[in-house]
Write a structure and sequence with these properties.
It is a single chain. The protein has 317 residues and is an alpha/beta fold. It contains twelve helices and eight strands. An eight-stranded mixed sheet has the order 1-2-4-3-5-6-7-8, sandwiched between helices.
Amino acid sequence: MNAKVPRMRHNPAGLVTALVASLALFACSKQEPTPPPAAAAPAERAEPAPGAPRISIAPDGVHVQYRVYGSGEPALVFIHGWSCDSNYWREQISAFDKKYTLVTVDLGGHGGTDANRTDWSIARFGQDVATALSAVPNQKIILVGHSMGGPVAIEAARLLKDRVIGIIGVDTFKSIGAPLPTKAQVDAAIKPFETDFIGQTRSLVADHLFVKGSHPELAQKIAYDMSLSPPQVAVPSLRAVLSYDFAEPLKEVSAPIVAINSDLGEPVNEARIRKVLPKFHAVTLPGTGHFLMMEDPQRFNPALETEVTALLGPAGS
């Protein structure tokens, strides 16, 4: 015979009391929900290190590489010459970056800047400089252009307008006011480079751009470096600089223009140039060649400082 299992008696009041107590205990021990973490503020874009490559995009889509050093006003903007790049200004960086903002620009098809264009005019190179400076906040700019960089500085000044307070040419501007060469003369000068770019470029540098016998290692290095420029950029660029007419562009430039030149080749004709630029003057460093800023920075840098100081005026403003 199976034993009877006693039935539990339900106590409704007790069950309700226990349920209420359990809910109360749960409610007391329940923690407030942890709020989600606050969204982190967007990190400020870090300023590139001094001399680090920076990129601005020109109107034709070319990525223009430039570098910035130092701080303060004005900005000295260094523009290299034909088949060179911004590294040709390396002797000026440490001499000036503690006092001024320095900007070095690689023109289209040179150094770190793209070559994906077909227009190799001086005006287009001037746009490259203006493109780089569109990202530089300085409102006072002195353009320093070597060789082809001189005409390029003129074109950049047309675009930058009142931001430019002066232009300093380095072994350039000697043809201002002189008759332009004919197309036949330009064609004849270009032809050897079209035929043998490497050989002709090395000959040009070694035989014509240095004082004979001076700085043989530097001359060899530059000759080799320039000869490796892509001919599809270098040849039309050379044609552009040989054909460049200063007359109309200079009418749009109000900033003072000066030059620091070597005494290699024909002396600068200041009287002729002053018929176009009445306040023009040139400083000549005797015994130097075309790359005087690299050959003799001990003399070139103080000469450049003198011209910068003069452009800033007595108050340095």
